Amino acid sequence: MNAAKMAQPLGCGVGDLARVEGIVLQAGTSFAAGMRVLPEERRFGMYAVYAFCRIVDDIADGDAAPSRPGAEGEADRVAQLDAWRARVARLFAEPEAGAAEDSLDRVLRATIRRFDLRQADFEAIIDGMAMDACGPVVAPDEATLDQYCDRVASAVGRLSVRVFGDTSEMADKVAFHLGRALQLTNILRDIEEDARLGRLYLPRELLTRYDVPLEPRKALTAPGLAGVATVLAVRADDHFRQAFAAMAQCDRRAMIPARMMGGSYAAILKALRQRGWADIARPVRVGKFRKIASVARAFVA
Question: How far apart are CA 76 and CA 60, in angstroms?
Fold first, then answer.
């Protein structure tokens, strides 16, 4: 490998890196700020992980192009996710890039090797996307909801903390709690939007306890919905606290992006709780200075 090649992040070509970064920039993710603070090699590693997550998420939501002409619906989404499962297996099985691969394959493989990422975490993310791809999730039981949060959020966290620079068990604990905190916040923020899509991620046991219908649109107007949301908000807040406590026992520099992401989402959760649950269709807006203050608090947590 020549000196010019070695000087490139992850040893990847400039064109491959640019195409993977382009996926991230096009997505307009709120996590971009957390990724930008990373050193160049780690930043492009996170771009690769995020690009993978973005693509499989688009498949699950039906936003990706059909894999076969004329194909549509659940069967095609599952087929595309299965293809990604096989693709991930090849990335771990084959030590060198193949000529037929695309830019994301090449940058992902380099990221996997450089940061010792685990195949099981990629597979868990695909499993989580499959839960959405196989029809809308409606009133899952508590265990299924927790499994969903682990797959679509905490598994992403387990990959991320390794790219950030901490491979300890405590870093995995950060991923466990922060992933659940972020996902529960997303669920609470998007109750009305999800219901319009026929989805209801609130747990069946809580819905039953507060006499809320298990049908998404009917749940929106049920008086007991506020009780369900209040309980989930308390859980999310507790996961934030436990995540920040675990971060304090990790490599401080490596946890900078996690603290930024956690602080940003904690501000959203706080705004949701202050708005209340009587009018969940009313969006919450977190101002720039309020978000900055929340992120700042995350660094002293």
Answer: 10
Q: Write out the two tokens for 135.
A: 């029809």
> How many helices (H) and strands (E) are present in the chain, helices listed first?
16, 0
What residues does 200 pair with on adjacent strands?
138
Q: In this structure, which amino acid lies at residue 170?
A: M
Phi and psi (nearest 5°) for 211?
A: 55, 45
Only one residue has tokens 């989805």, namely 199
**Helices 119-133 and 73-93: angle between axes, nearest 10 degrees:** 180
Q: How many CB atoms are closer than 10 A to CB 109? A: 22
Q: Is 249 helix (H, G, I), strand (E, B) or coil?
A: coil
The helix (run of H) or strand (run of E) holding residue 87 is helix 73-93
Look at 147 and 66; give whichever has higher pLDDT: 147
CA distance 280 to 294: 23
Q: Is the CB of residue 214 less than 8 Å from the CB of residue 141?
A: no
Distance CA 118, CA 170 (A): 16
Among candidates 163, 190, 187, which has minimal Cα distance to 175?
163
3-state secondary structure of 200: strand
CB atoms within 10 A of CB 248: 11
Quote the Cα angle for 66-69-71, to 5°: 55
pLDDT in tens, 153-189: 999 999 999 999 999 999 999 999 999 999 999 999 9
Does residue 209 carry a pLDDT above 90? yes
